[in-house]
Amino acid sequence: MGLVGARLRDDGTPPHDRLGPIDRLRERAAARAAMGVRRQLMVRERTGDGGLLDLASNDYLGLCGDARVTAGAVAAAVEWGTGSTGSRLVTGTTSLHAELEEALASFTGAVSALVFSSGYLANIGVVTALAAALASPADPSVLIVSDERNHASLIDACRLAKAQRARVAVTPHKDVAAVRRALAERAEPAALVVSDAVFSVDGTLAPVAELHAAAREHGALLVLDEAHALGVYGPGGRGTAFAAGLAAEPDLIRTVTLSKSLASQGGAVLGAPEVIGTLIDTGRSFIFDTGLAPPSAGAALAALAALRDDPGLPGRARDAAARLAAIAADLGLDPVTPDAAVLAVTLGAPQAAVEAREICRKNGVRAGCFRPPSVPDGQACLRLTARADLTEREFTIAVRALTSVRDHVRVDVSLLLRQ
Ligand SMILES: Cc1ncc(COP(=O)(O)O)c(C=O)c1O
Description:
41% of the residues lie in helices and 15% in strands. The chain is an alpha/beta fold. It is globular and about 60 Å long. The chain has 14 helices and 11 strands. α6 runs parallel beside α7 (208-217). Pyridoxal-5'-phosphate binds at residues 118-120, 123, 151, 153, 196, 200, 225, 227-228, 257, 259, 267.
């Protein structure tokens, strides 16, 4: 039997969990339910989500479903098929991928670009590959300085880099002095600073120019995740680094996703050829992953063209977010002033955030909510995202939903002290 030769505990019982693995998972799920942090898949219906107003998606420019973008995906599928057929280094690089890389670099003012199959994998790839490549045989340790509110993909990238002997210093939110201190006091010869450009939860801008100056002064590279900035922030939606005049700086590396403003799927790293070469040679999430599906590349290319054709789109998305924030503030709620298209309305307890999301739903609005561990304890929030194409009628629906949130959700003000 299986127990023959197994090591037993002192009381003679086998070492495995007596509850059984599935029962243990049920128990953990019940504990998460009690804490208000169970998550649910919300199935969208094909016919317009039952009439709900979408204030939860990342389709900031309203291009998902746009006829030009759909046509781009269809044309790519017809020409290349539905899948890329292999990893980028084997059969998964079509001329469409090359075209997309050129278009992304040219739009964002980057010297070169490399497309990944998701933004998540772009972040994992760039941080781990750079941390490994910057380590020297004499001193294999590298310091990574990471903002405490960075997106989970950057956090996971740091965790993986730790396994390669990097040291990670997590700094307070947007605290450039703390970043400088961490860089100045380090023993490691090499360092990376990693930050969201527009923070995914609170929707505010990172101190991009200051972070870059700090990194440069201390001989470090800055990795900036422009997922929520591309298409929304900066001239024509070219992002925060472009807006700061830093787009072609060799010590600034950007990651983007194709899944938000560009209404597609996939991600990319933008940077110096030396960085891109390092990723092609050593980036594990690039090398050991199937290339982006051609229809996604085709859709992203068409969305980029639509964005070039209408440089007013990003401003309309930002204005819509500012208007939603003004509505929430007028109602006495506590919105964070948005810098792009993401708006957080802080409510405190996770249960309050879930309740607010349900109230929105009952009032015809699909909203998101963030709870720990996606946000710090006590900072659960309703998360709204704006779109460039929101109509007056839709703003009226948003007012009704937020009024109901104000009237029915108990906000624990003691939890709302911002850091
Ligand atoms: C800041 C940020 N970075 C990276 C990602 C991951 O991008 P993707 O969805 O393309 O994997 C997201 C969200 O999805 C994000 O919000």
